[in-house]
Amino acid sequence: MTNSTQQLTIQTDQPFFEQALRHGFISGIITHERVKEIIAETPEGIVQIAGVFGNKYLRPSIEEARVRIVHLVSLYLQATCHNDLDKAARSLQNQSIIAHSR
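Structure (tokenized):
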């Protein structure tokens, strides 16, 4: 009988940003204070993205921008952190959401 290592991979429909944020908070990489900061700074990024892709004064543009910022941050984290949730969580702890969405 041969020894083999089996890995369990959990598939989720959540964007990588949300996975990294949850993982970071649960594991203690992201502090409660930083979560509050992320919540406070994200609307600014949403308005900036709405202004670029639509109109920052129209509700549909704001709603689309909310989805876009999550996807932009997810793409940035996946590319720079190579899908590593620990690295992504540290990045979220140390850098602003605006920096992650460029």
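Residues 16-100 form one domain. The chain has one domain: 16-100.
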